[in-house]
């Protein structure tokens, strides 16, 4: 992102950015995971096992959270958290930690990267992160989607996170761990561009016109705007990704078939199912992640400088 401010922000290395981005992603997931789980449940609602006599089980983000706590217990809100943390340590580290480096490549080392270079960098790091971390996303979604009510007739699919990795690879082949990879690449290219580029540009403008200093209020404002923009443009492909990754073998022939099935059976509004929890989750996630990222990055740089400075 923009590097302006104190000495601690002068020249963070790629390693520092990797560590800060992965750690900040984990912090953000710990805070917002129940919202993400509610979003997943709302997105897959319409499939047979999440309806009761033709009526929706979940209504709204807080209604979904209340229903899950009442019928499945509070722990259900954090089902898949371990895989979620695996995902953030690998996914966020790549897509956020490498963003500045790739942006410099596309801008040919220029200090002022244009919008084209920023968009290309966002698409590139988003696609790279998905290709690397897709198995963690598949496992996370399946745990979040699993209904744990005896009366629903549901059977526990996996005994744990690592069992899920092994079971999917055994039953569906290694390619099962990369199920939904293409729609996820499309989603994260969009998400990364909306999220990182919006944050980058807004933060840069705030600092350029001296509206705020390079501190938490600035990071909060830029992160909130990034979350709002991202939710609007990424919601349809996010719903398709969730439905397809959670589907049993043979339910859909591909991501496009999944999208067409949703359109025919549930109408165009199906693509914005879970929009409110998506916005609440992305908005809050962006705020926690970017504020944490900036602070962790600065803390690591201060520690590094104090370690290298002579006594």
Automatic annotation (TrEMBL):
- First and last residues of every Solcar repeat: 12-105, 113-205, 214-299
Q: How does it sit in the membrane?
A: Multi-pass membrane protein
Recorded hits in InterPro entries, A to Z, give: MCP, MCP_dom_sf, MCP_transmembrane, Mito_Metabolite_Transporter
Please give the catalytic activity noted in the UniProt record. (S)-malate(out) = (S)-malate(in); malonate(out) + phosphate(in) + H(+)(in) = malonate(in) + phosphate(out) + H(+)(out); chloride(in) = chloride(out); oxaloacetate(out) + phosphate(in) + H(+)(in) = oxaloacetate(in) + phosphate(out) + H(+)(out)
Superkingdom field: Eukaryota
Q: Where in the cell is it found?
A: Mitochondrion inner membrane
Q: Which GO terms describe its biological process?
A: transmembrane transport
Q: Which UniProt keywords apply?
A: Membrane, Mitochondrion, Mitochondrion inner membrane, Repeat, Transmembrane, Transmembrane helix, Transport
Pfam families registered for this protein in UniProt = Mito_carr
Family indicated by similarity: Belongs to the mitochondrial carrier (TC 2.A.29) family.
The entry describes its oligomerization and partners as: Homotetramer. Adopts an asymmetrical dimer of dimers functional form.
Q: What does the UniProt record say this protein does? A: Antiporter that exports dicarboxylate intermediates of the Krebs cycle in exchange for phosphate plus a proton across the inner membrane of mitochondria, a process driven by mitochondrial motive force with an overall impact on glycolysis, glutaminolysis and glutathione-dependent redox balance. Continuous export of oxaloacetate and related four-carbon dicarboxylates from mitochondrial matrix into the cytosol negatively regulates the oxidation of acetyl-CoA substrates via the Krebs cycle, lowering the ATP/ADP ratio and reactive oxygen species (ROS) production.
Instruction: Tell me the protein's name.
Output: Dicarboxylate carrier UCP2
- Which organism's genome codes for this protein? Seriola lalandi dorsalis
């Amino acid at each position: 992102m923009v590097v302006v401010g104190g000495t601690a922000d002068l020249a963070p290395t790629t390693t520092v950015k990797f560590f800060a981005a992965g750690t900040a992603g984990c912090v953000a997931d710990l805070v917002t995971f129940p919202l993400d789980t509610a979003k997943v449940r709302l997105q897959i609602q319409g499939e047979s096992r999440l309806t009761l006599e033709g009526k929706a089980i979940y209504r709204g983000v807080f209604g979904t959270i209340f229903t899950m706590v009442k019928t499945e217990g509070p722990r259900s809100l954090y089902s898949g958290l371990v895989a979620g943390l695996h995902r953030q340590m690998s996914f966020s580290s790549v897509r956020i930690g490498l963003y500045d480096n790739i942006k410099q490549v596309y801008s040919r080392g220029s200090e002022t990267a244009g919008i084209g270079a920023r968009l290309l960098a966002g698409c590139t790091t988003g696609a790279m992160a998905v290709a690397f971390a897709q198995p963690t996303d598949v496992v996370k979604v399946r745990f979040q989607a699993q209904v744990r009510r005896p009366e629903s007739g549901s059977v526990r699919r996996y005994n744990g996170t690592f069992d899920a990795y092994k079971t999917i690879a055994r039953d569906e082949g290694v390619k099962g761990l990369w199920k939904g990879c293409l729609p996820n690449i499309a989603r994260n290219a969009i998400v990364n561009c909306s999220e990182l580029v919006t944050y980058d540009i807004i933060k840069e403008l705030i600092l350029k016109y001296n509206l705020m200093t390079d501190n938490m209020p600035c990071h909060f404002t830029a992160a909130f705007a990034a979350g709002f923009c991202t939710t609007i443009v990424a919601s349809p492909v996010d719903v398709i990704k969730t439905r397809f990754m959670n589907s049993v073998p043979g339910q859909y022939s591909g991501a496009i078939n999944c999208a067409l099935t949703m359109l025919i059976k549930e109408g165009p509004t199906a693509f914005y199912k879970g929009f409110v929890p998506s916005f609440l989750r992305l908005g809050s996630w962006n705020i926690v992640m970017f504020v944490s990222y900036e602070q962790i990055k600065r803390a690591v740089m201060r520690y590094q400088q104090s370690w290298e400075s002579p006594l």
